[in-house]
Amino acid sequence: MQKSVTLKEPYPPGDFAIWLVIYVELITFGLMFLGYAYSRHADVALFNKSQLMLNQTSGFIDTLILITGSYFIVKAVNLVKTAKGKQMIVEANQKASKWMLASVLFGCLFLLNKILEFSDIFGQGISLDTNKFFMFYLLLTMFHFMHVTLGTIILFSIFRRTKASAYSAEDSRGIETGAVYWHLVDVLWIVLFPLIYIIR
Amino acid sequence: MKYSSQMVAKPYFIFALVLLAGEILFGLTMSVQYLYGDFLFPALPFNVLRMVHVNLLIVLLLFGFMGSTYYLIPEEAERELWSPLLAKITFWVFLVAGVLTILGYLFVPYAELTKLTMNDLWPTMGREFLEQPTITKIGIVLVVLSYLLNVTMTVIKGRKTTISIILLTGLFGLAFFFLFAFYFSDNMIMDKFMWWFVVHLWVEATWELILGALLAFVLVKLTGVDREHIDKWLYLIIAMTLIAGLAGTGHHFFYMGAPGYWLWIGSIASAAEPIPFFLMILFAFNMVKNRRIQDDNKIALTWAKGTAVVGFLGAGVWGFMHTLAPVNFYTHGTQLTAAHGHLSFFGAYVMIIFTMISYAMPILRGRPHGNCEKAQKVELTSFWLMVIGMIGLTLALTVAGVMQIEMQRLPDSAHAMAFMDAQDKISTVYLVRSLFGLMTFSGLIVYFYSFFVKEDKAVA
Asked: Ramachandran region of residue B370, left (φ > 0), alpha (ψ -120 to 50) or beta?
C-alpha cells in the first residue's frame, strides 16, 4: 500500500526542548497564580488595601515595553525566515540584527524600570515578610524579573548571531527558540500584571 | 580500556561495593531492632547502627563517584589521568580515614569520641549525616580537593566535553557545599539552615549533576547516539535540576522557625523537582530507542534505564508525596520520610554506581564486550532482586508512615497514640520491611556472585 507524505512546516517552532521548558514554566507560574487567588480569597480586604500601594502606571509601562520588544523580535524572525541565497541572507540578517538590538534595549528598559519599582517598594520598608500580598507580589515579580534577565541575555546572543548572518530560511531554529522564550516571558507578564496590579 | 590510568577506578568500585554490603547489613540489623528492641543491645544500640548505616551510605557513594570519575574522565578528556599515583594515594587515605571513623562509631561511645577527637576545639559533630569527627571532615576535604585537582587538571589538559564539564560542576558543588558542615551555630535555626545547605544541596542539586553526567556517559558509550543530541538533553535536565533543586531547599525550611514565605517557595519549587527526574527517564529510553550500536553489555543498559525509573519513583514521586507544606505538616519525620530516603538514594545514586560498575568493570577486567551472557543473566537476577526488594521495602515503610500519621498526627493531642504504642501496631509492617530488606541483600550477594561466573569454554 502506498503511503502519502505531506510536507509540513516544523511545528512547534523552535527547538522542542524550549517547549518542555515552557510547559514547566507555565505549570510553576500557574501554581503561584492559584496560590495568589486562594490566599486573596481568604483575605480580600488586605489584598485590596496592599494593592493600592503598587505603582500601576509603572506596571502598564512594563507591559508596553514587553509587547513592543516582542513585536521587534517577530520582525527579525520574519526577515530571516524568508531569506534564501547568500546575498539575501546577509541582508536579512543585518536588518534583523537592528530589530534584535532594539528588543535587547527594550529588555534592558524593562529591567531598569523594575529595579526602580523594587527600590521604591523596599524604600517603603516592604519585604517578603510584610504580608501575604507583598509576599506574592515580590515572589512573582522577582521570579519574572529573573526570566526577563535570562531572556535579554538570550536575545543578545541571537543579536550577535544575526551580526554573523547565522540565520536563514533553512536554519531559523535558534532565533525562533529565543523568540518563543521571549513570548513566554511576555504572556506570563500579561497574566501577572492584571492579576497583581489591577484586579480588585 | 583506552587509557591505562582508568585502572585506578577498580579499587574504588570494589570498596564501594564492600561498603554497600556493610550498609545493608547494618540496615537489616536495625530492622530487627524495630521488631526486638533489645537485639544486640548494649553492644550495638540503634543510634550507633543508624549513624553507621547513613555514614556508610555517604562514604560508599563518594567512593563510587570517585571511581566513576576516574574511569570516565580519561576517556572524555582523551588523555591519561593527570596523576594516577595521587588517585591511588587518595584511595588509601580515604579508606583508612573512613574505616577508622566507622570503627570509632562502633567501639567508642559517641560522647567519648567527641573528646578523643577534640571536638570542642572546633565543634562540628553531633548532627545527622555529619557525625564525623572534625578531623575526619578535614580529611574528607583534603581527599576531595586532591581528587578535584586530579580531575580538573586532566580536563584542562585534554578534550572538554559537556559531560566532563557538568561532572566537574557537580564535583565542585559537592566540595563547596560540604564546607557548610564546618559552621556550627548556637542558634538551632541557623544550624539547620547550614545543615540543609550540605544535605539538600548535595543530594537534590549537585549530586544530580553527577548522576546526569554519569548516565549520559554510559548512554553515549552503549547507544552510539550523537553527542550533540545527548548534550542537549543533559543541558535541559541540568538547568531544571538546578533551578528546582536550589529553590527546592525551601521545603526543608517548613515549621522550623524560618519565615512563613518558605512554605510557599518550598512547596512550589519542590513541585517542579520531579520534572528533571522524569526527563531522565525520557532521556534514557529515547537514547536506547534511537541507538546506533548494539552493545553486548546489555545489563549495563538495563541498570541505566533502571536508575532513571527508580530515581524518578524514589526522588520524584515519593519526594513529592510529602513536600507540599500542608501535607508535610502531618508527615514530617514519619516513616514516609524514611521510605522516600531509601528509594531515592538507591534509585538515583546507588543504581548509577551499579550502572557505572556494570559498564566499566568488565572492561577493567579485560572483557571489552561486557561479561559473558551467563554472568549477565545472573546480574539481571540480582538487578530484579535488589529493585523489587527496595520497592517492597519502600512500600512497607510508606504503609508504616501512613499508619503513624493516622495514629499519631491526625488526632488531636488528647487522642493521639503514644509513639511506642503506635510502633507496636506497625510491627507486622516492619517485619515485611525486613523481609524485603533481606531480598535486597540477597540481590547484592547474587551481584557479587556474578563477578565469578566464568565464560562457558565450549561457547567461547
From this structure: left
